[in-house]
Amino acid sequence: MSAAPLDTSRTALVTIDLQNDFIHPDGAYGRAGLGEPEMAALPGRIVPVRDALRARGGAYISVQFTLVPGPGGEPLIANHLRELRPFLGKGDFAPGAWGHSVVDALAPADYVVEKVAYSCFYQSRMEYIVKALGIETIIFGGIVTNGGVASSLRDAHLRDIRTILLSDGTAAFRPEIHEASLVSLGTVARVMTCAEATALLEASA
């Protein structure tokens, strides 16, 4: 994608699913032995992007996967997710719980959006926040590149929002899937490293 100047006051950093239950060793995925060092490294890389954007009037939105507690506190889980992740149970990704929260390195966010499916725009308040803030550009980071990140980025693209994808601020459970997703999403997004995005923000008015 071609370079274009940024209006940082109309730019948002959006992180997808960088929550304790996903990437902290004591979270739901860590307890199940599904922790990934590459995913745990993402917040530290993204912090300079967030700080540079905030210093120039932009906003940080943390999108957090949510399992709504149902009868007896058992989470309402889609059938496909229950088959893929049978270890998820009561209290995991529950609103207000420690596991549901964004990781400490990125806390607090300026805005939090609860996400119940892959895209952060699906049945959430994301669209309202973006419109109310007059957001024209979204910088995406988080997990997984081929899932929530890809779905959210493409939905932003469909809404005529310019998108930037952080190549080392995103990750998937398999590196080859991550790399393939970067190539695919590069057709609709500007792909750059966290360091490149930070430099772009610092050079923007």
Commentary on this structure:
- The structure is a single chain.
- The chain has 205 residues and is α/β, with parallel strands linked by helices.
- It has a single domain (8-202), classed as Rossmann fold.
- The protein has helices spanning 20-23, 28-31, 37-40, 42-54, 79-84, 126-133, 145-158, 175-185, 194-202; strands at residues 11-16, 59-65, 111-115, 137-143, 162-171, 190-192.
- Helix 8 links the parallel strand 5 (162-171) and strand 6.
- Helix 4 (42-54) runs parallel beside helix 9 (194-202) and helix 7 (145-158) packs parallel to helix 8.
- The longest helix has 14 residues, at 145-158.
What is the CATH class?
Answer: Alpha Beta
Strand order of the largest sheet: 3-2-1-4-5-6
Task: Tell me the structural class.
Answer: alpha/beta
Total number of strands: 6
- Portion of residues in beta strands equals 15-25%
> CA-to-CA gap between the ends?
21 Å
Please tell me the total number of domains: 1
Order of helical and strand elements: EHHHHEHEHEHEHEH
pLDDT averaged residue by residue: 96
Short descriptors:
single chain; 205 residues; alpha/beta; Rossmann fold; six-stranded parallel beta sheet; 9 helices; 36% helix; globular
Give the structure's gist in a few sentences.
The protein is an alpha/beta fold. The protein has nine helices and six strands, in the order E-H-H-H-H-E-H-E-H-E-H-E-H-E-H.
